[in-house]
Amino acid sequence: MHEQTASSADAIASLAVKGGVAVSPQTIPIIKVDITDDDIEAAVAVLRSGMLAQGPRVAEFEERFAALTGARHAIACANGTCALQLAYELLIEPGDEVLCPAWTYIATASMLVARGAKPIFVDADPETYCIDLEDARRKITPRTTAIATTLIYGNPVDMEGVENLAVEHELSVIHDAAQAHLATFGGRGIGAFGDCATYSFYPTKNMTCGEGGMVTTNDDDLASRIRAFRSHGETEKYLHTSIGYNYRMTDVEGAMGASQLKRLANVTAQRRRNASRLTEMVSGIEGLVAPRTTPGGEHVFHLYAIRLDLDRFSCTRDEFIDALRAEGVACAVHYPRSLTRQPAFEAYVTEHLPVSDHLARALFCVPVHHALEGGQLDFVGAALAKVADAYRI
Ligand SMILES: Cc1ncc(COP(=O)(O)O)c(C=O)c1O
User: Fold this and answer.
1) Which of 31, 103, 202, 253 to mutate to test the pocket of ligand 1 (most atoms within 8 A of CB)?
2) Is 290 in contact with 361 (CB distance < 8 Å)?
3) What is the pLDDT of residue 232?
4) Ligand 1 within 6 A of 105 CB?
5) Of 89, 100, 206, 340, whose CB count within 10 A is highest?
6) Phi, psi angles (nearest 5°) of residue 392
7) Alpha helix locations (H) across the chain?
C-alpha cells in the first residue's frame, strides 16, 4: 500500500476531481468532426441533382483515394465494416484459420466470423501495439490461409515483416487501415501493401463522409470481383455472375469524401505536429509512455495513446482519466478489453494474451486532432503532469 506523504496528499487535494481548480477552464474535446462549407456545397449539389445513388462523385472519390494511398484500385462502400467483408469474402474461405490481432476494434475479427472463418487471436507488440509477428508465426498451422492486421491508432504495422511471413507461408494479407488513411511504410502508401487494405470514413476518423468505407488493392482481377460483389454480383446491367450484396456508397457521401480528401494531407500534417508536441511533454513526465511509431512507418495519429506505467501510480488508469477529465481534458479508452475477453468470441478463444490484456488496463487517449490550438495542447501537457505528479508513488 502506498503511504501518502503530506506533499502527495496536498497534490491530490489540488486536483480538480477533488475540488481543486481545473487546468483548462473549458473541456478540450477528444474529436472534431470537421465539415466545411465546401463539403456541404458538394453534398448539396448532389442532392439538388436528384441523382443520389452511387455515380460520378463516388467514382471521383475512388480515383483520388487510390492515387493518395498508392493503390491501383479503390472501391468505395457503405462503411469500414462492409469494406472488411468485401475483402474477406474474396480472399478467405469458410473454415480457414486467419491470424488476427486481439488488440483492435471488433470488426477486424467479427467479419472473419461472419465469413465462416476462424479468427486466431495474436497478441500485440508491447511497443507499437500492432500485431506481434513472432506470436503470429507461432500460431500458423496447415489451415492458416491469411493474416489480418490493424494499423492501430494510425500506426503502420511492420509491412516488410508481414510480407515476409505471408510469402513464407502463402498467406493472403488484409490490412485494416480504418484508422490510418495516408499512413505510409518505407515511404509508400498503405494501399501499395498486401492483397487489400480497408478504410473507414466514420465521423470520428481522420476524414469522414458520414458513413463510408473503401477497399484498396493492386490486383486488377480482385478489384473487379470486389466491385461486382459490392453490388449483387452485377457485371453488366442485370447480369449477376455471382452472389453479392448492396454495399454501395451514395453519391452524397462520395461528394463529401472527395471534398474532404482535398485537405486530408494538411489535416494529417497537423495531427503529426500535435503528436510531436504531446510527445515532447509526455516524455518529460515520469511514469507515462508516449506512443512509438513502427520503424519504417509514418503514423497518422488518428489517436494519441499514452501508456501508464501502472506500478508507478497509486491510482488505476480509470481513476487517472477521471482526474484528467476534471482538469478539462477529454479522454477515451480504446479499448477497455482485448478481443479475447469479448463474450462474442468465446468459441474462438483458447488463451488470453498478456500484452493485450495489459494495454486494456494501461492505455488512454488524449486529444490530438488537427483543430487543437497551441494553448490547448499546453493545457493537455499541464493536466497530464499535474495528475501524474499527484498520483505518482
Ligand atoms: C480498426 C477498425 N476497423 C473497422 C472499423 C469499422 O468501420 P465502420 O465503423 O466504418 O464500419 C473501425 C471503426 O471504428 C475501426 O476502427
Assistant:
1) 202
2) no
3) 98
4) yes
5) 100
6) -65, 140
7) 6-13, 37-49, 56-69, 80-91, 106-114, 133-138, 159-169, 220-230, 251-283, 317-326, 354-362, 374-391
User: Is residue 94 exposed (0-12), middle (13-18) or buried (19+ Cβ within 10 Å)?
Assistant: exposed
* φ/ψ of residue 239, rounded to 5: -110, 115
The 10s digit of each residue's pLDDT in 238-265 is 999 999 999 999 999 999 999 999 999 9
Would you say 35 and 29 are in contact if contact means Cβ atoms under 8 Å apart?
no
In a mutational test of the pocket of ligand 1, which residue from 105, 196, 198 has the highest number of ligand atoms less than 8 Å from its CB?
A: 105
359 contacts: CB under 8 Å, gap ≥ 6: 103, 124, 129, 307, 338
Length of the chain: 393
Domains of the chain: 6-32+264-391 (3.90.1150.10), 37-260 (3.40.640.10)
- Give this prediction's pTM: 0.97
Residues paired with 27 in a beta bridge: none
Order the strands of the 188-189 sheet from edge to edge.
Answer: 188-189, 184-185, 297-298
- Hey, how many other C-beta atoms are within 10 angstroms of the C-beta on 170? 9
Reading across the β-sheet that carries 304-308, which strands appear in turn?
288-289, 304-308, 363-366
Model confidence pLDDT, tens digit, residues 273-322: 999 999 999 999 999 999 999 999 999 999 999 999 999 999 999 999 99
DSSP E strand boundaries for 210-251: 213-217, 234-236, 239-240
pLDDT band at 6 (very low <50, low <70, confident <90, very high): low
Residues 6+ apart with CB under 8 A from 49: none
Atom 5 of ligand 1, nearest CA residue? 80
What is the grid cell recorded at 351?
488463451
